[in-house]
Every structure is written in C-alpha cells, then in structure tokens.
Design goal:
The structure holds two protein chains of two kinds.
Chain A lengths: L1 E2 L3 H14 L9 E2 L1 H9 L6 E3 L4 H7 L8 E13 L19 E4 L4 H13 L5 E5 L2 H9 L5 E5 H4 L6 E5 L7 E8 L6 H12 L1 H9 L6
Parallel strand pairs in A: 1-2, 5-6, 5-7
Antiparallel strand pairs in A: 3-9, 4-7, 4-8, 4-9
Helix pairs in contact in A: 1-8, 2-3
Chain B lengths: L1 H8 L5 H24 L5 H6 L1 H34 L5 H9 L6 H12 L6 H8 L7 H26 L2 H9 L4 H12 L1 H17 L2 H6 L10 H11 L1 H21 L2 H4 L3 H4 L1
The chains are: A alpha/beta, B mainly alpha.
C-alpha cells in the first residue's frame, strides 16, 4: 500500500520489478497515507507500506509489526496554478489575495500538514475555499479552473496534463517531505516484500523516482 | 384503509422465500449493529454539541430540502412528458435523465465541474456576466444533489402516471378544464402517494449525497461541507466522530423513511379509493 502521490512512479517501478522478477506479482493499492495506515491497523492485508510521512508509521507501530522504515525518497512542495499563470501568482504571499481561490486538503492528510507548516512559517494566511479529501482533489480543482492555486508535491506536477504548471517555492522556506517504506513482518510474502523494498531503495528504483519528480532521500 | 390492506395481504408464502427474506433483513442489520457496537457513545454529546456538526447538519438540511423541492418542480413535468407523449427517442431521453442514478457520483461531479464549474464550458459565463459561481457555494451543493436525486422522483412519478387511469383527466378536460388544471386537480391527486414517495426518496438521496458534492462544490465549513462530507472526512482524522455522525445520519434517514408508510408506497391509492 502506497501514498497516492507515489502512484505514477510506483506503477513504473512495479513494471520494472516484475520484469526482473517474473515469479512475483506486485499488487498496488494507493490512497491517502492516513487512510491506508488506518486500513492496515484495522486488519487490511498489506505486505509493504510506503507513506508520505513518517507519522503514519508511528500509528502502525501500536498494532502492526514491521521492518525498520527506510526513507527512500523526498518530495518538496510547490504552488500549482493554471498554465499560463493567469492570476500572476509568484509566491506564497499571493495565496492570501482575495481574488486567488486556494484549494487544500482536509486536516489529517499529510499534504495539509506540510502546507500548514509552510504557511505558518511564511506568515501567510491563505484564501482557502475548499478542503479536499486528497492531493488528487486539489489537482482537479486547479486543473479544472475551479480554484486558482493549491499547494501540492513537486512530483504531482510531473506527468499531469499541460493544463497546470508549478510556481516554485524558495528553497529556504520550502519543506521536504520524507517518504518511508517498510515490509510489514506479518506479511505472508515477507521475502518477496523485502525484495521489492530493496528494489525501491536501489539505484534503479531511485532513478525512476527522480524521473517522476521526487528528490534523493 | 387498514382493513382493506390486512385482508388483501394474507397470502401463504413458500418457507424458502420467507427464510431468504429473513436472511436479507439480517444482512441489512449486521452493518448497523457493527457500527453501534464500535460507536463511542460517550462522545455523543460533545459531537452533537459541536458547532461544526450543527453547521454541517443545518447545511445538509437546507440543501437537501431545496434539492427535493427543485426536483419536484423539474421532475414532475419531465415525468408527465415521458409518461404521456410517445415521441421518437423517448427511451434515449429517459435514459439520459436517469443515468446519474447508476453513475459513480464522482463522475457526475467531474462532469458538472467541466460544464457548470467556474471555468466550465457554461459556468464561465455565469461568472463573467453575473459574477455567480456554483463552485464552492451552497447552490453548487444543491445542483450536485438535484443531479443525483432527480431520477428517483422521475422514476417514481412516471411509473404512477403510466398506471393512473387517463379517463378521469379526459373527463375533466371534456368538461372544459384546460390540461394544466386537469393535471393539477385530477391527475396529480390520484398519484399523490407516488409523488410523496418520490419526493422523500429524492430528499434522502440528496441528504446522503457525497461524491458529486465534494467534486463539484468542494468542501468548506458552513457553505459546502454537508453532514455526509463531514462524516467521510472525519474518518481520516477522528474515526470516533465519524461513527457518531454516521449514527446521526442513519437516525435522520430512518425516521424519514419510516414515516413513508406502506400506503404511500402503493402507486395509485387515490384511484382505488
């Protein structure tokens, strides 16, 4: 089970891994990290968990045992706007403008936690108009033009349609999201699961992640 | 009424049918029992007393009742047309109007976003010309709810209109009543029960609507966060709260559906009386 921000990168990694290991069939489930963690705690069968934030592993540790999580990728935040940037949004300050409608996620979703931390540090009160269920909801609202901007992961901008573009957040205020992965030790395919985790953290796995907009761990 | 009903219904059913029926009832009860068992009852008062819960409930009530009223005004003429005028392509028109019943609500929401949304094909003109937006407004919630709820009313009312005896309204018209008058005073009263059932079903569907609403109208406290959106989203951050809110939705919907007594579910009680 993997955070929905990993969807495109992990689908590629899955294909590469399966062609190298034809005897293993990886089945991916993507969702908000917080939702997935809850499902695993509630007994969903998962062999591997890859989250967008380490806190979900703390949640797991109360009821599920797993290997020590490894940070395998990082992701930074960026401002997503409509392509051509019609509202001339050039930085975080513009998100406070009355004429700029900003989409974010509901509390408890990692992207919201990061967004709040970033905006608090920058001293910006954004003009939020909607609290979506996940990052995909934010992207939809911006790409359809319902909202003017949203803060998402850099990896979310890679591979999305040309209807959106990113406005960079200066490195000195930006926040780095760290993605931990681990095999869960009550897995029925523990050896295979560990092989997949090894593949994700290997050089070729890392290269794929970088192609999809993620950063080095 | 009650007498007529009781000696009409005492038919002997095969035991298997009754057993299967009992199984089905159990199937519907189990999830609720599971929910009741896990619900943190001690939090009942604090969740109900919370102003965010009250805001969401109040918004859900306002929007779903508005959606039900809009559904009646739009749905009855549509049902009447579909039931009475045999035009070419009627089946296609009917299917078009009912399709949102079977679509995943998110698909409906996306379609609404691209058509009536702030930058949608038509929605952009509402914004340019009138400064009016459905997106992120309570009217957007109502539109999303009407979109998914209307078919329930159309289906119920059209079915009843097809079974209603046309001779009464013909008689009314032969006595000089125009078609609107005959429809309002003769046909409509004869399908009264179906109209009520259809309205209540449409309301219930609107009240529970979630996917189309959050996709089209978004989620903001007080304007677009309905009780069903609040319930779904609190699963992430506070599952106990989500369970209490679920109980609230179940109780409200149950009370309304129970008040829809048997007699309102028979298609044409008026004509029989």
């Amino acid at each position: 089970m993997a955070a929905s921000s990993l969807t495109d990168a992990f689908e590629r990694i899955e294909a590469d891994f399966e062609s190298e290991n034809p005897d293993i069939d990886v089945v991916m489930v993507f969702g908000a990290s917080s939702t997935l963690a809850k499902q695993i705690v509630d007994g969903a069968k998962a062999d591997i968990f890859a989250s967008a934030d380490i806190t979900q592993f703390d949640e797991l540790s109360t009821s599920v045992t797993g290997d020590e999580p490894t940070i395998f990728a990082t992701n930074r935040l960026t401002i997503l706007v409509k392509s051509g940037n019609p509202k001339a949004i050039n930085g975080l300050d513009d998100l406070a403008r009355d004429d700029v409608l900003v989409a974010t996620a509901e509390e408890g979703v990692p992207i919201r936690t990061y967004t709040d931390r970033l905006l608090t540090a920058a001293g910006v009160t954004a003009n939020f108009v909607t609290f979506e269920a996940n990052v995909a909801g934010i992207v939809t609202k911006v790409s359809s033009g319902a909202a003017d901007a949203g803060i998402v992961y850099e990896s979310d901008v890679v591979g999305t349609e040309s209807s959106v573009q990113a406005v960079a957040i200066p490195a000195d205020v930006n926040i780095t999201a760290r993605y931990p992965i681990a095999a869960l030790t009550n897995s029925t395919h523990l050896t295979d699961a560990r092989r997949f985790v090894d593949y994700v953290t290997s050089t070729s796995g890392r290269a794929t992640l970088i192609d999809f907009g993620f950063g080095e761990p | 009424m009650t007498d007529a009903r009781s000696h009409r219904r005492h038919e002997r059913l095969p035991r298997t049918a009754v057993l299967l029926a009992a199984f089905t009832v159990v199937f519907f009860c189990l999830p609720f029992i599971g929910l009741l068992w896990r619900t943190p009852w001690t939090r009942l008062l604090d969740v109900f007393g919370d102003s965010t819960t009250r805001d969401a409930l109040w918004l859900s009530m306002r929007t779903s009742i508005t959606a039900a009223i809009v559904s009646v005004f739009l749905g009855v003429p549509l049902a009447w047309t579909l039931a009475s005028i045999p035009f070419r392509g009627r089946n296609i028109v009917r299917s078009l109007c009912l399709i949102s019943m079977v679509l995943p609500p998110v698909v409906g929401g996306i379609s609404l976003l691209f058509s009536l949304g702030r930058s949608g094909l038509f929605g952009r003109y509402l914004d340019d010309w009138f400064g009016f937006r459905f997106t992120f407004s309570s009217w957007g919630v109502v539109v999303a709810q009407v979109f998914v709820a209307l078919p329930f009313l159309v289906l119920t009312v059209e079915g009843a209109l097809r079974q209603a005896d046309p001779r009464f309204s013909e008689a009314a018209r032969s006595l000089g009543a125009n078609s609107w008058y005959a429809f309002r005073r003769v046909t409509l009263p004869s399908i009264r029960s179906a109209l009520i059932a259809g309205t209540v079903l449409a309301w219930a569907r609107a009240f529970g609507e979630f996917g189309a609403t959050i996709t089209f109208a978004g989620n903001y406290p007080g304007t677009t966060r309905t009780l069903s959106i609040a319930t779904y989203l609190s699963l992430e951050s506070d599952p106990g709260r989500a369970m209490v809110l679920s109980i609230m939705m179940i109780v409200i919907s149950f009370v309304v559906l129970v008040s829809l007594r048997d007699r309102w579910l028979s298609p044409t009680d008026g004509a029989r009386r």
